[in-house]
Every structure is written in structure tokens, then in C-alpha cells.
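Quality-control log, excerpt.
Job 1 of 2 completed; input and output follow.
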Amino acid sequence: MKRIILYSAFMLLAATGCNKQLDIKPEGVFTEPQVVNSQATAEALLGDMYLKTYAASVTPTQGGIGHSIGDITTGITTLLGTSTSTALVNGTVRSNDPFVAALWNGHYAAINEANVLINLLPKENWNTSLQNTFIAEAKFARAFNYFQLLCLFGEKALNGGMDKMGVPIRLINFNGYDQSQNIPRNTNREVYAQILKDLDEAAAALTNTEVDAFKLRARAQTASCHALASRVALYMGDNDKAIAYSDLVLAVTAKYTLLSSPALVFPDNGAGAYLNLPFTNEWIWCFPVSYNKNTNSSSGDIAYHGIGYFYKTGIWPTPTFISSYGATDIRKNMFVMGNTPTVTTTGRLCPLKFSSGSGSVTPVRAPASTNQSRDNIVVLRLAEIYLNKAEALVKKSGLTQAPVDLLNAIHSRAGLPAYTLAGFANADALLFAIIRERRWEFAFEGMDRYDQIRIGEKAGLPADLGIMNLNSSLTNPNFWALPIPSNDVVLTQGIIKQNPGY
């Protein structure tokens, strides 16, 4: 029987009033049945599942590369950093690179804990209603982790290659290694279907009635499931489903609101406050980094997300990208500034999303201390749902007013003149405007790589769109997917096949 080192609560376990830290020392070692036979231990496992999801999504192995891979390969940022990061940009990543294994193993570790909850909780007889909630949250997390794996490792998973190699689907919790554990990669179609199945089942078991802001935005809700499903459906090319899921989220107006200005979406947290930083009404789901009460600064401390371009170490926004914003675009002025007291090299720019420093710097949004990477990291927010629906509508119905209105809801609030339907020569021109808006709106949120890959082979792309236009080193579509870690290929004796080109 597999043993689990059980960590006492993650702050995400606030549902029962826990007030504990993300990084409390292990309480003990339990077998899987033991870990789910009480509410307290099952909830702690649920928290650790969220924690593993966060760690896999943001930190492998250092510098927040799991998050920043979305920006560093498309010209939004430039590197001074590690050879691994450079290899990502140059398309020279190899299957034995440590960060590749960290991404793969990290997401599967989170999936395994989700599987424990999903498979073993139904055998217990304590508080069935709460068990069902935990199972639903586990299905949401399993879906999210599989989607991350598919975006990173799936062979043409973002380019319509539905019958090409995705990733292995494991729905049974790991119970000791033998050769039966060696399963091949499922197709992208099969992985997408499992992701949406999990999200649909989770959405049906959850609600949008939570009144506590922390629980509403840091734990899965029905709208969280539908928001993620909106992105999944868009990426897989199912426009009808992308529209339907988007509409379900847009209907929850009492909980999620498109704010009137980008400046309100990411609050100014640079005046000394760095614990329990606020969420905004536009955020649907996030990683609550600031809720760890440990104020000790140390390398790898889970209290710090460590993303390179927020920590101001080896990754920097490029002047070329910043200059692409319109002169009156609020996002250009609010999210990027020049040198900080700790970084004096001329010309380096600092993003100001997720600003959480102490000390006074002009403008105040600029972090000036090691607290600068304590801020919560948003994963899903309402602006994306507007643009998801707009893109799906264009792909389904062509050049119509509805997607223009959705695009303008994001474009105009940034201080830019509204688009008109007559201003677009054809549907592709509107589609390209939507993708460009996604670049501007979600810069430094780790999404651009996937958008650019999705349109990377489309004819007629403007020079500032498409991964081949933005990064001349990634012209080979084989390298838009990362290599499967070499150990997994070798240990399974080739049952898990390597991606083409590696």
C-alpha cells in the first residue's frame, strides 16, 4: 500500500476555518485509506493537491519557469538567465533537461493525489456532502493538470492534431511500480475528452454560492470549472463548446465582474502590505501565494512564487513588446516601469502585475524588496472569457458585431478607441485583433506561447503575431511541444513514445 507524507493544511483549506500555513512540517506518514478516513486528513490531502498543482504550474525548477514559459518564447520577455531558459527560447531543449522532468513529474504528482481523493473517498462514510465537494475539487485539479501537460507535451495538441500523441491518462492512484504501470500516451482527443468530462462532473457538484472571497477565488467553484472548460474548448477547436462554457461564466454576474480599468484588476500592493493580499472581482481562480504567513526569506520558500520577471532576476520585458502598446493604453503605463533601486542596468523594464513589495519607490507599484514575489498569481479571470467567446464566435460565424463588442469591452477600458465592424476587412482581420488583444491583456500571465502556437501556421499573420514570426528559432513545429522526459521513455521500454524531432 502506497504511503503518503501528509502535510498539515494548505491555506486553501479555509473552508473549515483552518488558519494554518502552506509550508507546515509533515505531521506523519499515512497509507492511502488512512489519509481519507477523516475529514481533517482528507482536507489536508486536498490542500496538498492544490499545493502540488501550484508548484508544478509555477516553480519548476526555479525562476517560475512553469509560468514564464508562456512569455519567454514569444518575444514578450528577454532572458539573462539559465541555459535551460535559453534552450526553451532557441528550441534546443533536450529530454534530459531537469526542468522538463520537473514539469512532467510535478503535474502527475498532483494528479495522483487527486486520484486518491476521487477513488477512495466514496468508500468512506463521514459527511458525504463534504466528500462530494472534495471529489469535485479533485476532478477540477486533475483536469487542470492534464490540460497543462497537454499544452506543454502534446504533439500538435494546439494545432488540430487530435489523433496525435497526447499524454498518458492515469485515473487510478499509483500503488507501487510494476510493469502494468507502463501505459502509452493517449491521443490528444482522448485527453481533451477526459478533461472536459472531469470539468463537467465537477461543475455539477459545486456551486457559485460561496460568500468568502478567499474560498471563492482560491478553491474550485462551478464557474472555475466552466472558465477552464472555456479555454480548453477554445484550444481544442470546439467553438460551440467554447461559446457555451463562456456564457455560463458570464451569467454569474453576482460573483465575477469585468472591472472598469486594467488598473483595478491588479491592485497596488507595493506600499508595504504583502500578506493576505486582496483578490479582485475579475479573478475567477488563482494561486493564493500571499496567504502563507511565513515571512522568512529563503531560496525555494513556498511563500515566494519566484517568477523571474516579477522577482527581477533573469527575465525582462522587451522594449519591442512594450512599444507595441498604443500610446494611450493604460496597460503600458500601469504594468511596466523602468529601473528599480535593486536593478540599475539601463533599459531593463519591470512588469508591475502582481506587485507586492515594501518600501517606497516611484511609482509606488514598483516592488523594492524580497517581498516582491509574494503576490497571488491569477490563473483564470473574466477578461479571458470575453476574448475566448469573441474568438470562438469569429471562427464559427465570421465577421459579425457580437465578437467586436466583446473585444471592445477589453480594448476600450484600456483607454483605446473602440473598434468598428467596418474597420475589419474580413474575419481573419478581426481574429488577429483578438489574438493581439490577448497578448496585451495577458502579458506576464503565462499564456502567450499557447495563443501563438494555436495560430502559428495560419496564412496572412501580421508580423507581430504567430510564434514563427515572433521567434525565428522556433520555426519547426515539432519543437512547439516539449520532449517527454528521457527517463520515462527508457523506464517504460519505449511504451511512452518520444515526441517527433527529439
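Job 2 of 2 completed; input and output follow.
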Amino acid sequence: MKIKPFLLTLFTVSVATISVSKVSAEPQYFKVVADNLDNPRGIAFDKEGNLYVANSGSGGDGQDGRCEASPSSGYVPLCASSSGSVTKIATDGTRTDVLSGFTSLGLVHAGAPADSNLDTQGAGPADIKFDHKGNAYLLTGFAGNPSVRESLLQAPDLGKLYRVDLSTGNLTVLADLAQYETNNNPDGTDLISNPYSFVIKGRYAYVADGGGNTLYKVALDGSGIKQVVVVPTQPIPPDQLQFPPQSTGTSDPGAPATGDSATGSSSTQTDDLSALSIPPGYTLTPNGPISNQSVPTNLTIAPDGSLTLTEYTYYPFPAGKARVWKVDPDSLEFQEIETGFTQLTGDAYDKYGNLYVLQHINQPEWNSIAPGGDVIGDTSGSLIEIAPDGTRTTLLSGHGLEAASNITVGPDGDLYISNHSRFSKGQVIKINPRKLERLARRHPQN
């Protein structure tokens, strides 16, 4: 992925959009529940009120040769380690890694000292959920070419949905999404898989694959994948897209330019664009090839029983173009219900029917994070409330909310967010939305 900041892109769609961006982020603003987490992603509570965090880890240094050229980040080496884990935060605050040793993929920064500990997005354990009986399920991401999962990366545990016995650590594979992408490539474009999030409804798990741009319906009884649909694309005329400054040269002039692997992708730019091999589904522009892919991210269940799906959008991550979808859980038919966002990575409903969505970063990602993963600008994100009548309220923008990836409503009614989610020192924060709303109304200026 890549990133940098313009001014925050806050959107006015309904009766009111209120920002607290002038107010400093202090303890009354949000509480840090857990710190120093390694690329925290999906979070969930069990029936006893314990919080579980899927940590994707930071990848490897490449010394053991377990690397591939990343198809989604400018062909920077994507290397494996065993730093993925699942952390349990008990109701008394006690913290335990209940699962560890999962493969983690991360970008290796060329020329960086071995002890530099540069922050970079990882791919590994991506999401965790519990069904109504208290059974645990775990999703692992990938963010690479699934055809080299075993051969180059030696990472057979990635790109899968598991049933988990937390008392023994035993894993039962329910679906191999990366293998399905390898065998079928549902969207017919580049071969990339990155299962990013899932939700459980009844006897099924619904999985969003941000690399394959697909939504899977998986049976929890072990009978496998039941339905697969491609998330609707979003063609935007190239002259309406904003690209980073033109660069020359590339690490792989003959490779496709972008992969849209979950929350990111990158361009491959050369002086001779005619030398590029354009895969199906891409359009050649003066800045290189682009796709129209959706890049789906998070799933949640709406009050009416339908699914609500957010998207990140494809490179160059156009501001204000990310959508929110309503999905029928039976037919998997899509209906656009909200738009005007930038790079959404999370959504959740409270008991009043308010929908909360997370903007990962408030501006196109390439403005904030370089193709190799280096942070080059502001990574501030936003928490936005959408009331049942459609009114939007920006509860928090920046001021400590940065590169967040997942949100859930806790047993106490507060919002829990995996913050700094693409960094090795991530955290889970707790937000009282009503308190923020009151604070916002006292400080309405942007």
C-alpha cells in the first residue's frame, strides 16, 4: 500500500455533517484498550465479554527466500515470517496470545537496516468471529499471488477460513479462498487473493476477498463454498482520477500495474507504456494501467438481516468514491445504499440502527504511504455515523485515529476499533459515540 495527506476529505450528504477535528484527542476522547499489537485487524467479543484481536504480523526479512514480488505494491519483495497471532484481552485487562505462529507476509524495504523495524502493512490472521453458540472462526489473509503460496512462500495456512478450538488451538479448514482464486479467478482479472473480513449469519459465513474482488458464502458445517459473486465494478473516466507525480522506471516493466489487494494497490509506471502487458479488466492511461475493481473490505449484519459491505476502491483510490452496499444473504444481489467516502475498511451497527463506517485514511492512499510501505504523509482516518434517516455525523477525524481497519460494538454499547492497523505498534481503542457526538456539537468548526 501507499499513503499521504491532503486536507481531510469530509463529505456532506445529509442534514448534518459535524467534525471534531479541531479538538485534541485526549483521554475523554477515546481510551486505549490494548497497545503494541502487531498489525491488528479484525476484532470480536466472545459470549463472556472477552475481546479477541487478529494480528496480521509484520512479515519476514527475506533471508530464508520465502518471498514473492508483491503484485499489489510495486513489486517490492513480499516476504514471510511466523509472526501472525490472535490475542485475547480478558474482561480484567489480562492479555494472552491464544494462537500464534501463523504465517505473516510483509513488504521488505530495500536498503533498510536490519534493525530499522520499519512499519509496514502485514497480511496474516485477518478477522475473527464467534457464532451464537460461542464457536470461534478465523480468517487468514494473503495479499499476493495465491499460485505461489506453497512453492515460494511456504505459507499453506494463508487465504483460508477456519473453525477454531481456542482451548486446544486446533484448526479445521472450512474454505480455501486462495485456492479457489487460483483455480477459478472469478473476476477474470489479475490473480490475487486477500480474504479481508467475514461475518456469520445463521449456518453460513460470508467472506469479502479484497484481492479477488469477490464475496463468498461458506457453509459452517464443513461442506465448503456455496456461492461466489464478483462485487460490482466502478468505471471512472481516467481524466477524472488523480494520480501521484509521474515516475519513470519500474522493477518489472512487463508486469501488470495494479493488484488492488484488499486495502491497496499500486501503479507501475514506465517511460514506454506500450511495453506493459495489460491484463483483462484494466484500462491503459498516461499514468499506467488502472482497474475498475471494487476492493471489498468489511461485512456486517444490518438490522433488517441483510449484509452491509464497505469498499476501498481501486488504485489510485479516488477520494469520495467508496461505496456501501446492501447484499441479500440468499441471492448475494447488491444494492448501493451509500457513497461519497474515501477508502472504507470497517462498518458496524448499534442497537439504535445507526451505522458506523471507518475511513482508513482520509485521502488517496498514495498520498500517505509509498509503494514500499513507507509512511510519507498524514494517515489520519475518520469515524462517521450514518443515522437511520441518512444523516451523517463525523464523530472523529484524525487526532489519534489513523489507518484503522475494523470496528465492532462492544457489550457496553461502545465502539471498539483496531487502530494503527497496518503498523507493528497497533492498538485497540474504545470510543463512546454519544460522548463524541456531544463534543462535536460543542466544537462544530472544521
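Post-run check on job 2. The domain at 40-361 is CATH 2.130.10 (Methylamine Dehydrogenase; Chain H).
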